[in-house]
Each structure stands twice: as C-alpha cells, then as structure tokens.
Design goal:
The complex is a heterodimer of chains A (about 625) and B (about 600).
Chain A: H1 8-20, E1 24-29, H2 32-36, H3 39-50, E2 62-67, E3 79-81, E4 86-88, H4 96-105, E5 115-116, E6 123-124, H5 131-134, H6 152-157, H7 162-170, H8 173-183, H9 195-203, E7 211-216, H10 225-232, H11 234-248, E8 252-258, H12 262-277, E9 293-299, H13 308-315, E10 339-343, H14 344-348, H15 350-356, H16 358-362, E11 372-379, E12 385-390, H17 395-402, E13 412-417, E14 423-426, H18 436-441, E15 450-455, H19 460-474, H20 480-497, H21 503-519, H22 523-527, H23 530-538, H24 540-547, E16 563-565, H25 575-579, E17 585-586, E18 594-595, H26 605-609, E19 615-617
Parallel strand pairs in A: 1-2, 7-8, 7-10, 8-9, 11-15
Antiparallel strand pairs in A: 1-3, 3-4, 5-6, 11-12, 13-14, 13-15, 16-19, 17-18
Helix pairs in contact in A: 7-11, 7-15, 8-9, 8-11, 10-11, 10-12, 19-20, 20-21
Chain B: E1 5-9, E2 12-16, H1 22-28, E3 52-56, E4 62-66, E5 77-79, H2 83-98, H3 114-121, E6 148-150, H4 160-169, E7 174-177, E8 184-187, H5 203-207, E9 213-215, H6 219-227, E10 232-237, H7 258-268, E11 272-275, H8 276-297, E12 303-304, H9 309-318, H10 332-347, E13 356-362, H11 366-371, E14 377-378, E15 381-382, E16 386-389, H12 390-399, H13 421-424, H14 431-445, E17 466-473, E18 476-484, H15 486-497, E19 505-509, H16 528-544, H17 554-564, H18 570-576
Parallel strand pairs in B: 1-5, 10-11, 10-13, 12-19, 13-16, 18-19
Antiparallel strand pairs in B: 1-2, 3-4, 3-5, 6-9, 7-8, 14-15, 17-18
The chains are: A alpha/beta (about 625), B alpha/beta (about 600).
C-alpha cells in the first residue's frame, strides 16, 4: 500500500484522556422518549446547577452528557452516573437540585428516584442490577446511552472506526465478506436473509458503480430499535456502511430514514459531517485510497418503503411501490446498479463482528440464528422499552424476567411478535427459544422485533383487526391480492368485532388469507395475513364466541358488551340513572335499578358512577 | 448456436433462447396464462398476479411467482395450472369483479374486455361475499377529453395506461394516487383528462384490459348524419384502416380489405367513398416541395413532419418555441376535407358546400381532436365533420348486419380515391419519410428515383423506434431521421436544442410503430406480431401498385393541372397548409366542446 493509515490507537488514547478530564460524567438520556418526558430541560437544569460543583468523588468537575436512548423509556427521564454506580428513573425537573445537592455533593443517594423492583419492592441502585437490564446482552445498543451521540470524540473513545481501520489495513474485501458470512449474521429487518450471502451476491457484480443502502424505514408499530441506534450511536451505523461499501466495491451510499425521525436525521447529519471533516468518511478515509460518501434520504413514512425494491423506487423519486424480484437489488438495484440493502440493526452489527471476530459473534445465539437481537417490548408488562438479548432467549425470560411480568398481576395471554407481518405466540410458546426458524415454524416471525405483550383483557379478534387495518392502509395498492384481499379481510374482521359476523366469514377469511399470502407481489402482502392466520390457529374459539354467542370473551368489543345491574348490590341511589346519557336506566329511589338494553349505548358511564360496584359489564 | 437451454412446462420440454420472461416461453410452448398488466412492449409490472405459476427449481425449492416477471431459467419445472395458481387467479378475479362496475351490457369494451373474458373462463358466478362497489359510490365518468373516455369504476389498476403514457410518450399524463384500497389511476391532481397535457394518442386505451379507458364513441352521431335526408355524407379512409379492420371480422392482420370497406360504407349509406391515401399523395407533393425549398434556403431545418396530430399537439403544448420546424402541411385528413368541400359539388351532382358532410375513418383517436382544431375551421364550419376510428367503423358494420367478408369488393369514388404506393405506406412508421424522399428526389434532380424501396426507414418493432437514413441526392447528402413514440421524439428535440442534431428531416409518429398501431385500431394490446403484419400488409400493397411515387398519381397530376396549379402555390397554401399556435398555457380550450 502506498498510502499510510492514521494511527487510530493513538487517537483513541487522546480522546480517552479528554473524557477522563471531564470529571464526574452525568449521563442524561436525550433519546426521543426521554426528550418527550422533558429531558432537555433536565439537562439544562443539571448544567445550570452542577457544572461548578465539586463532587464528593474528588473529581475536579462535573460534566453533563446528553446521550442516546437507554432503552428503558417507560422510566424516563433516565439519569445515569456511572462513577456513583447509580441509575435514577423518572427524573423530573424539580428532582435535579436534590440529585446534585444530596448525591453528587454529599454522597447521599436520593432513594425515592431509584428503580423499584416490582417483585421484591426493593430499591435498585445499579443499572445492571435492574431486572430490565440484568438479562440483556447489549452489543448493537452497547453505546446507546453511554456516549454523547453528537460527538465523534466520544464515539472514538468507545472504539468507533477501529473496525474500519482494521479493514483498510488488511485491504482484503473478500476477507470482510468471509468474516461476515462466518459470523452467521442474518438480516435484522425481517426476512432473516444471511447477510454474508447478500454481500457476496452484490460483490460479484463489482466493477462499475454500486451502492450501499441502509434501510432505516422502521415502520412496525411500536418498534424503535433502528431509531435508537441512529439517535444513540450513529457512528456505529456509518462505520458498518463504510465496511459494507469497502466489501462490495461501492463508494456511495444512502440512508433511507423516515421524516418522522427528525432527531435521528439530525444526529446522522451531524455525525456524517463530523466524520467527513475529520477523514473518517468521504475522500481518502483515514489516509487510505478508499472513498465513501453517505447521503441521507428522508422518506415520507410509508410502511411499504421498508420493502427494499419500494425503498429503491422511493430514493429514485418514483412512487414507493415494490418492483418484482428478480432482478434482485444485488444485480439491478438503485438507478439500475448493483445495490446492497441492509437495515440499520444489521449494519450496526458489522463493526463489532469485524473487531471482535466472527467467532465471538457466532458464540451467541442458536444454531442458525447467531448474535443478539433487539426487541421493542411493549404492552401489558411491567417494564417496557428497548431490549437486546441473544438469539434463542425464551419468551418467558423476556416477558417475566426482563419485562418483570404482567402488569397488575393479570394473566398472560399472548404476544404479538414481528408487528403487522408477524403472528401471535401463546402460553405454549413461552419456553420456545426465539430465533428466525422457530418463530416461522410457530406462524410468527422475528420481523424487525416488535413485541406486544397481551393479557387476559385483550380481545384477540380486535388485535387481528387492528393489524389488518394497518396493513390495508399501508398497502401500496399495486397488486390485487394485497390491495383488494386485505380490504375484504378487514371488512370481515370489522363485522366480527361489531357482532355482525357469520360462521362462513371464518371460511372466507381463511380462503382470502391463503390467496393473499400466496399471491401477493411483495413481503408486505405475503405476510399481511399472518396475524389473522395465527390468531385463528390459537384462538379460534374467541372468533366463534364473537360470531355465534355475540360475546367478546375479553369484554373489549363495545358492540357486544352487555351492562347489567346486580339487584342484590344495588341500593337504589339513582346515581347511575342520573349519569346515563341516554336515559336507559329506570328505577325508583331505594329500589334496585334496571337497564333497558335497547337504549343502552354501552358507554360504561354508569359503571364508573356506581359507588356499590353493582353494575357489571360483560 | 450456443448450447441449448430447456425447461419443463407442464411436463413438456421447451427450448428457450432470449425470451425476456417465462410468460413468453410459456406462450411459445402453446400454453396460455391469463394476464391483465403484462404488455410485451411495456415494462414488466407484476401487479395483477393472474400469470402466477408454480416453479420447481432443480434443488427442490418450489415457489409461486408471476411468470411475466421471472426470467426463464434452465431446468426449472413450471406448472401453469395447479390448484394453487387457479385459486389465486380465481380470488383475484372475484376481488376485482366485486370492486367493479359490472354493467357490462352498456360498456364500450364489452366483448373485448379481458376481465369479462377471464371471469367467464374461470366460471366466476358469485362475488357477493366480498365488499361490493355500490352504485352510490361510483366515481364520476370523465367524458371531457375529445378522444377518450375514462371510467374509474372500471379500472382494475393494472397500470398499463400509466406505463404506456410514460414509456411511449414520456409524458405521464396518467399516474397513481393514494394508497391501499383507495389507490386510483388519475390524471395529474385528479383533473379531467382534457385539462392536462394529453396528446390524445389513445395508447392508454389500447392497452387497457377493461372499459376504464375507451374511445369516445361517436357511432351514433355518424348514424344521425347518414339517416338525415337533408345532408349528403361522404367518407375518407386512412391508410392503416385497411390492414386492420379485417381482424374484427376474422381476417388476418395485414390483409388488405379496402375494397370491402368501400363496399361496407356504401352499404351503410355513405353517398361517396374517398381515400385518404389520395390526400397522402397530395401531402407528399406539398411536403416534398416544402422540404426541397427549406433545404435550398437552409431554413427551418430539420423539417418536422406534421401528419401525426398527437405530435403536433405535443409540439404546441410542450415546445411552442420550435413550431417553425413543423411542416406547414395539413395532415392527409386535413388536406382532403377542404379539397372535397371545394370540389365535390363541382364533380358530383346533388352535392353543395352546405349539404356535404365529411366523415373520416381513422386508425387514430387524436384525429378526433385534430378535426376540432380552430385552425381547421373555415367560415365557422369544421372542415372534417366527424372522425370515426377503425373500432367504431367495425361496430357500425356489425350493427348494420353486414357480412363483411362476403361483400362484393368495390372501388372508391374517382377522382379522389386513386393512390400510389407512397400514399399507402403513410400508415407505418417511416412511410411518410420514404414517400417524401421518393418525390423530393425527382423534384431536385428531375429524374425519377429508380429504387423506391428505402428499407432503412422501415420496421415497426420495439427496436425500430429511431432510425437514421442517409441519402445521396445527386451529390447532396440528405439525412432523415424516423422516430415513433414521443419519448423518442423528445430526445431528438433535446439534440436540436443542444446543437448536436444531425438530420434534415424528422418524421414523428406518436404511436409505437406508426398509425398501423394507432389508438383507434382494433385492440391487440400491443402485440408486436400484429403490428408487424399490419405493416407488411401496407408494404405489400405498395409493391403491387402501378404507381409508387406520389407525383406519378394521375389524379394528383390532374388536380394540380385543373385546380391547384403547382405545389406550394397560393391556392395550395389556402387549402392545404395550416398554422400552429403556442398552446403551452391554455391547452384544450379549443378542443373541449
């Protein structure tokens, strides 16, 4: 090699010293969730109060670091002070002064702001002892929440661009592809296609112009792992893209991010600019002859643009509609050129694999699904947020250990995994090691990793209707099975939850589901019937209850509720009759009241008004 | 030949070479799979999912995919007619029909509609279990375009029209809007099709599988004229009609049925039948003269032909700064009508300028719009009264109960029916230029061109949309470019604008392959073979006619001697030439009734 690479180790030492000089670091989450909870004001307040304080740790100053997402969004605003071994949760503006005065200055922790374990009811100090974090293995998300995402120095201090440096030093693109292949990394966006193979296919078309495209069009309701990476550790993504570009012979790349992620876009822009200015991206990267330019393309937020060919069409300025495959993007992608498309999480795994080796990565996970996977854990669990676990972790560990069990002591019913393209898993799957193949076999999919936990109060038909409504609205309208099929499936589900379903509707649903699955053009349509198929498989009796008995077993579907007054409990106080907006309740003072079902609109106002719990909804 | 590649279709070994997709191989093997969105000349789209097949790869993996989008691969096993593929097709048909205005009897496409055809073939009887498109939710029909009618309630969103407009005309007048089940095809911003820059070529209609886009049907207006005792109705028939209309009556594409058309028109009740081929010869006289003049003066070159009304419309709305390139000659339809109006009363008894009604039979939807151009209106009267397309004439013949094939062949009415081979080849892309060169050569050199077949200008397939021919006219090099589709024309305009253009004459036909594939022709859904055979029919007639050059046509000579004096004369200018206007901003005012 004629060029000389920079000495990245020396650079790392330099920035580490710099960070050490910052004194006591107070990490305040500035991810979208915590920002919504007011973290920017908390940061301001900390800066106002804390900067000139001399902490009890004998460090000479305090530095406030706004970081990316810690994952435990529900407990935001999160404040972590690593040198004091403490994590504060639900920090409000008015709590800042107490933290500074009591803990930072005097060394007395503010107990009321500590996390309380829902099982033991004890206060937990350390981050790693909080049950939410204890069972996680954070590699993709390792730096999210640890560093200031808008500082290249902080990223360098935790090893950013070291993997790219290693790649450039080795100068062997085949080795890079081999390493990724050996690691067993599979696409984290949904399909689970082996990443190394995808790289190999694209690299086979080396020679002319090629592109790397990062799919950041995260669209599953509730999923936000890609956003967290882009917001919390943008350089990890950029480095992964550059390594991919080096491997396949591309010098230009696009990140497709939805415009609803303004913070991610802002931080990516800052990161790209800084990296280019300092030679970690752009021309002659780190002194090598490798050039790599990254553009950001803001998407308008169509779910279907997460489909790679639709995404390509969208970048090209066309309507975001999928194109038939073959030709695959590896042969003919963006602007007709060979294109490698990986999603954010996949690319964020690249640098650690290169740095720590394929063996390190493949030591985690199951036989065919290696490494870790992030999940957006939501729904009826005690701890919700973004988690990262090794592939093969069971649902039980996620729901009951990390998630801390079902909220309010209710009974677990099911989880919907993989968003609108996934399916539901029930109690019988609690001990199933979650990986790509097991989930497919169970009628669900990893998808991008949305995980919605449902308890006994959730109506499964309504859940199916919700997701069908989502896919129908997000269908691009191109192919008939998806456009017309999902519309009709939705209509049927709407009928059923309104209590107007017929038994033959189930047959039509199944018929349509198969045709849509088999016949659709792209992944969106092919997976759209999954929620219906899997709920029909595990909860057919609930469908039948809606149709035959006109009952919603979970008591959710408004149209099928009946509200009655228990004559034994009713004291005749007339409160309910006075509350009822439609005058459906009759009765005289001190005598049991009665609801006229023909007038009742099932609003439930009477039930909330009754002081004797005499009004029953079923 | 390289090694032979084969695959198995329904158990039969089939060889394949360079077929662009599996569907073509399946069809070559003698099987058919239905399709709505696949059109060979357009980008493969894969939306209707009717052409799905089951494919088994040598490694045992089986997939279901649309055959129109799959490249053929050696050693795969393809099954076209399995339980799964049939079920998908059936569901697609049921879903489409449920969301369709099923009033087939009053639909203009009835009998030609592919949705109707496959619904019948697949035995769809009841779609009531799906959400129905109710009458009260029908969208408004858009009738304002002078050539086309758009009925959104019949649209199945196959996108063929969108692709035709974009890929043929580079124009994207139609596009998709909205998402999911609310998706629609519509002109820009939901405007009427008359209020956007539509050039009326009708190619959208020619590829539409249903009645969502149809030709503005003016058959009833024609019958009204014919049955009106106070008027005399004459017809003129364009070159391409004769090699296509037979398809509606069981004749092969390309079979020349001009004499049957003459007979049919007489049978229907037209008083006289003339031939637009005659005025194609007249156009050549004027245009060749104009060309020679422009070349000698070095003015306004390259000369653009002006017979294609879609092209003229395109120039007026998109490139008004370049109108001086267009030949001032009217189109053959535009020339014959005023000549007839002037001379028929002189030649035929009982005809007056006032009672004469001229109906032209055209392969073209844009001709309907051309006839309504203000520039082609004289003393308040449109020179051509009514334009019928080939499709509409076929409907008239059928409704008149005429057995077309059994008609006694008849000649057109002299002296406006005799034509040369140069006139007849106007219908194929390259024909106008070839005809012009045949005559221009003689105008320049004074000697007839010996070899009149200029093969380099011929060809109507997908790969012949731009042809360059260099000619040597007694030492003067003349370069002629022939293009079809406006997308190709636009490239030429760019060349002219950036100074790289190297040709003296530009022939443009908006429809791919020229008028033989016009928007008004019998539906072939852009089948390349049909196009080629129609063109062959014209070139065959050309080679068999006694006169091959327009200037040899004795009736043309006579017309100049007795009336027009000479090409480019004052009289000729008055009747045969026109002007063009900048219609960049107010497109359509002049064509919307």
């Amino acid at each position: 090699m004629t060029t000389t690479l920079i000495n990245i180790k020396a650079e790392q030492e330099r920035v580490k010293e710099q960070i050490k000089a910052q004194g006591l670091r107070v990490l305040v989450c500035a991810g979208t969730g915590c920002v919504a909870n007011g973290s920017l004001k908390v940061i301001e307040k900390f800066k106002e109060l804390g900067v000139n304080v001399r902490p009890m740790t004998q460090q000479d100053k305090v530095t406030i670091v706004p970081t990316g997402c810690h994952g435990f969004c529900e407990q935001g605003v999160l404040v972590v002070i690593p040198d004091l071994d403490v994590t504060y949760v639900r920090v409000k503006l008015e709590d800042v002064e107490e933290i500074v005065e009591s803990h930072i200055k005097e060394g007395k922790p503010v107990e009321r702001l500590l996390y309380v374990d829902p099982k033991t009811q004890e206060h937990v100090f350390k981050n790693e002892e909080i049950n939410f974090y204890a069972k996680q293995t954070r590699t993709t998300l390792a730096n999210c929440g640890e560093i200031n995402a808008e500082s290249l120095d902080e990223a360098l201090a935790v090893g950013a661009y070291e993997a790219l440096h290693k790649v450039l030093e080795k100068g062997d693109s085949d080795w890079v592809i081999e390493e990724i292949t050996r690691s067993g990394l599979r696409g984290r966006g949904g399909g689970g296609f082996p990443t190394g193979m995808k790289w190999k296919f694209t690299a086979a078309n080396k020679g002319g112009k090629s592109y790397v495209v990062c799919n950041g069009d995260e669209g599953d309701p509730g999923a936000f792992m890609d956003r967290s990476v882009m917001e919390g550790d943008p350089h990890k993504l950029l480095e992964g893209m550059a390594i991919a570009g080096y491997a396949i012979g591309a010098d230009e790349a696009y990140i497709y991010v939805r415009a609803e992620y303004p913070l991610a876009i802002h931080r990516l822009r800052v990161a790209i600019k800084e990296a280019e200015e300092r030679g970690y991206l752009g021309k002659n990267i780190m002194g090598s002859d490798f050039n790599f330019e990254i553009h950001i393309k803001e998407g308008a937020g169509a779910f279907v643009c997460g489909e790679e060919t639709a995404l390509i069409a969208s970048i090209e300025g066309e309507r975001g509609m999928p194109r038939p495959k073959p030709p695959f993007p590896a042969n003919k992608g963006l602007f007709g050129r060979p294109t490698l498309i990986n999603n954010v999480e996949t690319l964020a795994n690249v640098a650690p694999i290169i740095l720590k080796g394929a063996d390190w990565f493949s030591s985690m996970g199951t036989e065919k699904s290696k490494g870790t996977k992030t999940f957006a854990l939501t729904g009826e669990v005690n701890n919700t947020g973004l988690i990262e676990v090794p592939m093969g972790t069971t649902l039980r560990e996620i729901v009951f250990d990390i998630g801390g069990g079902i909220r309010g002591g209710k009974k677990f019913k099911a989880v919907q995994i993989g968003g609108p393209s996934g399916g539901c898993l029930t109690e019988e799957h609690l001990d199933l090691p979650m990986d790509y193949d097991n989930l497919i076999a169970a009628g669900a999919m990893v998808g991008s990793g949305g995980l919605v936990v449902m308890n006994e109060d959730t109506c499964i038909v309504e859940v199916a209707r919700f997701f069908m409504n989502f896919t129908q609205n997000e269908s691009c309208g191109k192919c008939v099975p998806c456009r017309e099929g999902t519309k009709n499936m939705l209509k049927i589900l709407e009928r059923i939850v309104k209590g107007k379903g017929e038994m033959k509707d189930i047959e039509t649903l199944e018929e349509l589901a198969t045709a849509v699955k088999d016949g659709s053009l792209c992944g969106l349509g092919k997976t759209a019937p999954n929620p219906v198929l899997s709920t029909l498989k595990y909860f057919k009796d609930e469908y039948i209850a809606h149709i035959k008995d006109k009952k919603c077993p979970a008591g959710v579907c408004e149209a099928m509720k009946t509200i009655t007054i228990d004559a034994e409990l009713c004291k005749g106080c007339t409160k309910c009759a006075r509350t009822c907006p439609v005058g459906a309740i009759e009765g005289t003072v001190k005598n049991p009241h009665h609801i006229d079902q023909s007038k009742c609109i099932k609003c439930g106002a009477c039930a909330s008004a009754c002081p004797f719990k005499a009004i029953k909804q079923s | 030949m390289s090694d032979k590649k084969t695959l198995i279709i329904n158990g039969k070994e089939v060889e394949f070479t360079d077929e662009p997709n599996l569907l073509e191989v399946i069809r070559k093997a003698g099987f058919n799979v239905p399709t709505f969105c696949y059109r060979p000349d357009l980008t493969q789209y894969g939306a209707c999912r009717m052409c799905v097949v089951e494919v088994e790869y040598p490694n045992g993996r089986t997939v279901i995919n649309s055959s129109c989008t799959m490249p053929p691969e050696a050693n795969i096993k393809v099954k076209t007619n399995t339980e799964r593929t049939r079920r998908i097709r059936k569901t697609v048909l049921e879903l489409l029909l449920a969301n369709h205005d099923r009033e087939c009897t009053t639909c203009d496409k009835s009998g030609k509609c592919e949705l109707q055809r496959y619904a019948e073939e697949y035995g769809i009887k009841d779609v009531s279990k799906y959400v129905q498109l109710h009458k009260d939710r029908f969208k408004e029909i858009d009738p304002w375009n002078p050539s086309l009618v758009r009925d959104p309630n019949k649209c199945i969103l196959c996108g063929a029209c969108v692709r035709a407009c974009a890929e043929f005309q580079g124009h994207a007048v139609l596009g998709f809007a909205n998402r999911g089940s609310k998706t629609v095809v519509q002109p820009m911003a939901g405007k009427p099709l008359a209020s956007v820059d539509c050039v009326f070529c009708g190619q959208c209609q020619a590829v539409c599988p249903t009645g969502a886009l149809t030709i503005k049907n003016e058959v009833n207006d024609a019958w009204k004229l014919i049955t009106d005792k106070d008027v005399k109705v004459v017809a003129q028939i364009a070159p391409s009609v004769r090699v296509a209309i037979g398809e509606e009556f069981g004749l092969e594409p390309g079979e020349n049925s001009i004499k049957l058309i003459n007979a049919a028109l007489k049978e229907i009740g037209f008083d006289l039948v003339f031939d637009t081929n005659f005025s194609a010869d007249l156009t050549i006289m004027e245009e060749a003269h104009e060309f020679v003049e422009r070349v000698s003066k070095g003015e306004n070159l390259p000369l653009f032909t002006s017979c294609c009304p879609a092209w003229v419309r395109y120039m007026e709305t998109q490139h008004p700064d370049m109108l001086h390139h267009l030949s001032s000659c009217k189109s053959p339809q535009g020339m014959l009508s005023p000549v007839l109006r002037e001379l028929v009363p002189q030649y035929f008894e009982g005809f007056t300028k006032e009672n004469l009604k001229i109906v032209s039979i055209m392969p073209c939807t844009a001709k309907k719009a051309e006839a309504k151009r203000e520039e082609l209106r004289k003393d308040g009267v449109f020179e051509t009264d009514l334009v019928l397309t080939t499709q509409e004439l076929a409907k008239m013949i059928k409704s008149a109960g005429i057995d077309f094939k059994a008609l006694e062949p008849a000649e057109g009415d002299s002296p406006f029916a005799l034509y040369s081979g140069a006139g007849t080849i106007f219908g194929a892309s390259g024909g106008v230029a070839e005809a012009a060169v045949r005559t221009a050569y003689e105008f320049v050199t004074g000697e007839p061109l010996s070899d009149v077949d200029i093969k380099g200008m011929r060809g109507v397939d997908k790969n012949s949309r731009c042809k360059d021919v260099e000619l040597d006219i007694k030492g003067t090099k003349v370069k002629v470019r022939v293009v079809s589709t406006l997308k190709e024309a636009e490239k030429c305009i760019k060349e002219i604008k950036n100074g790289t253009a190297d040709f003296h004459m530009l022939e443009v036909m908006a429809c791919p392959g020229g008028c033989i594939n016009g928007g008004g022709q019998p539906l072939s859904f852009n089948d390349s073979k049909v196009k080629e055979r129609r063109a062959e029919g014209l070139y065959k007639e050309d080679s068999e006619l006694p006169y091959r050059r327009s200037n040899d046509n004795p009736d043309i000579k006579k017309l100049y001697q007795e009336y027009l004096e000479a090409p480019g004369s004052h009289k000729a200018h008055e009747l045969l030439h026109t002007v063009y206007r900048d219609k960049f901003k107010n497109s359509y005012k002049d064509v919307v009734k």
